Structures are given as C-alpha cells and as structure tokens.
Amino acid sequence: MIWNPSVECMDRESMRKLQSERLRKVVERVYNNCEPYRKRMEEAGVTPEDINSIDDIVKLPFTSKKDLRDYYPFGLLSAPKEEIIRIHASSGTTGKPIVVGYTKNDIANWNEAGARCLSAFGLGKQDVIQVAYGYGLFTGGLGAHGACETIGAITIPISAGNTEKQMLMMHDLQATALACTPSYALYLAESLEKSGLKDKMNLKVGIFGAEPWTEQMRKEIETKLGIKAYDIYGLTEISGPGVGHECECQCGTHICEDLFFPEIIDPETGERLPDGSVGELVFTTLTKEGMPLIRFRTRDLTRLIYDKCECGRTSVRMEKIMGRSDDMLIIRGVNVFPSQVEAVLCEVEEFEPHFFITVDRVNNTDTFDIKVEVKEQYYTDEISGMVKLQKKLAARLQSVIGLQPNIILAEPRSMERSQGKAKRALDKRKLQ
Ligand code: ADP
Ligand code: ZN
C-alpha cells in the first residue's frame, strides 16, 4: 500500500514546485528566528529573497555536526522553547551529545514519514510490531513507535535487549514484524533457532536500520528468520528513522523528499555532484519548525537514483549507505569515534594516547579491540597489575562510549608513531 500517493507518486515537476515553496519558507524561518543561520547567510551574502526555487539551494551555506555541537543545546532552534515538545540526542564525538528539539508538527511529520515506510513494507492495522530499538534519547525506539501507532498497528514497545523476553513476547503476541538493528536481528535469529521457538513464530517483516548492513547480511537474516528484511534510514539531526525506506522491490531507499531534500556533494570540495555520482549525502529539512537544518552534511556516502521505481513511487531513491566520509565506526549499533578513545586515554594517567582500534565480525558479532600503550612507570611483568589496568581502562571507555572494548596492552614505546595524519582504526568488516 502507498500511504500518501499524492506526494509519493507526484510527478517530478510538481515535486520540485512543492520543494521550492517549502524551501523558501524554511529559509525565511531560520533567517528570522535563528541567529547563527542569519549570520551564516549574511557572511555568504544571501538573503531569503535570493531563494526562489529549489535550484537556488546551492547558494546556501552548509550545516555540519560541529555546528550542532557548537550551538549545543538550543542555539539552533528556530522556534520558541514553548513550542518544543520533545528532545532527542545522538551520541556525538566528544561525549557532548547533539541535541534536537521537535515541535508538535515536527513529530507529526516524522510520524507521517515513518508511516510511509511501514506501509511500503506492507504493514498496516492488521500487524503486531515489536519495537526492539532502544527507547530514550536515541530516535530509534520512539521513532519506530510513532510510525507503528500512526498506521494503527499493535505496537509492542519492548525496547532493546533482554533477548529471552523478546522471544517470549514475539511468540505470545504473535508479532508479525520486528524493528531493530540488523545485527540484533541476526542475534535474535540465532537465539530463536537455539530455543527451538523459530517455527512457532509469526514474523513476516523486518524493519532494520540505524547502521550500515550489506546485501549479504540481508539474505542471511531473511533466510534465518524466514522474513522480508527492509532497510529504513534516518538520522537524529534530520528527525530520526523514516527519512527514507525501501519498498517491496528492495532496489534502493525512497527518500521522503517532500520533507527532506537530498543532495550529493563532493566531500572534499563541497561542490554539488551531477545526478548518479557517489558522494556525501546532504539534507535540508523542508517542513521542520523546531530545529530546521539547511544543507546538513550527513557524511554518509551514497548515490541518488531519479528513475521511477517499479513500485509506482516517483520519489528519489538512494543506494545503500556505503560508509561514512569521516572515520566513525559503528560497532554493535553504537557510534564510536577514535577521538573518544583518544580523549579517554589522555585522561587516564597510566596510558599514553597511542592506540589502534581493530573491529571485525566473528560469528556475526562485532569484535572491538583497542591496543594501547602503557606508560613506562606503570608497566610491570606482574599479571595481576596489568589485568587491573586493563579493567580500569575498559570501564572508563565503556562509560564514555557505551560499549566495552577488549583492551590489548602494549609495552612502552612499542607502538608506531605517525608522521602525518595518524591511522587510528582498521575496520576488517569492510574487507570481508
Ligand atoms: P547516533 O549518532 O546516536 O547513532 P543516529 O541514529 O542519528 O544516532 O545515527 C544516524 C546515522 O546512522 C546515519 O547518519 C547513518 O550513518 C547511520 N544509519 C542510519 N540508518 C542507516 C541505514 N539504514 N543504513 C546505513 N546507515 C544507517
Ligand atoms: Zn519503489
């Protein structure tokens, strides 16, 4: 079912018209209500009067993740605080999260986008959807939740973790769809297999996103769970899950482009690239009120496809995200930046900030190793002392990153020093 055919199947000219109208409004909004945006536009020599059509968007300056950190927490709001009804946050690089504020209309539009996703996956009132994304500041749980309620499905707000309970609810309530990260879906599939419950389930559809996953992974999950596994894409800054979604053709992610306008730029030069090129994905929110963002650089790498899809939707599609233009690692669904590790190492007395991260996937679970160098005065041959050090650092990193790494201690001055830009990580999953 197509949830909103009037926009999802709109001809391209009408879509451009709608986007142009909405762009004009949102630019006026940020210019008049958000000091940093007004300043940025003045520096670039553009005023709202210069923005007449969607093609004029290239005149506008970019917004980056750094801007969200610099103006943390409310500096980029374009609505009075009284109109904000919800906050979400993403992990951010320096421990300081990125905070986003939503008005009532923002939540309604986000739910609309989510509803389009779920109906493209063939879901509706008749379904029972288990939401196993984390609830809280992370947009996954509440984002999927809003989408489920909007389409009128029975929503199971179980949140992430507790696999035994997940299996029990899935079975007893005969859930027809599961929303979680693809890696957790695989873990659940294996747990179901082990428990002997697999054949007693009623699952048909997976709503999987929040981390990159390959076609191979899709096949594996589909086979193991006996379902259709669909990709859902989103990011906190732009709203959350539902910015884009696959359809029954599973041939690219349709973007809700009447709400979120996508562009592809060269990550080095910032120049807009011709249709079909691979580059960094940039979004402008076309209807947001609380914290609209203009030309937000996602750092996600992909390509846009403008051909009409066989499903009947005319909305632009993007290919599966190929990776990030920066060095962020997504480990077991959690964003990890080498700079977070560096910051912790600088704080913990016993270590030098020389380290190397290795991420791999063994038995379908991400491994996360960090090799670190111990300061000379703390290095001993005594095992118990070294184990204590390992534990101390692992606990500190866990509190900052939210994930426990395996610490490998290196002797003083044994690690390579870099002459130029340091290579901090090796992601072996990408080599597979
Ligand atoms: P956090 O930064 O706390 O993880 P976000 O949910 O905002 O919070 O992370 C958004 C990022 O997650 C996106 O920019 C993208 O890199 C990644 N992501 C989300 N959904 C997908 C998906 N379906 N495929 C690949 N990557 C995804
Ligand atoms: Zn389609």
Mean pLDDT level: 92
Terminus-to-terminus distance: 36 Å
What's the CATH architecture name of the largest domain? Answer: 3-Layer(aba) Sandwich
CATH class of the largest domain: Alpha Beta
User: What is the CATH superfamily of the largest domain?
Assistant: ANL, N-terminal domain
Q: Can you tell me the overall shape?
A: globular
C-alpha Rg, in Å? Answer: 23 Å
CATH-defined topology of the largest domain: Rossmann fold
Query: Biggest sheet: strands side by side, in what order?
Result: 4-3-5-6-7-8-9-14-13
Domain unit count: 2
The small-molecule ligands in this entry are: adenosine-5'-diphosphate, zinc ion
Can you tell me the residue ranges where pLDDT is under 50 for at least 5 consecutive residues?
A: none
Can you count the beta strands?
Answer: 21
Number of helices: 11
Please name the defining characteristics of this protein:
432 residues; four-stranded antiparallel beta sheet; binds zinc ion; globular; GMP Synthetase, Chain A, domain 3; 2 domains; nine-stranded mixed beta sheet; 21 strands; alpha/beta
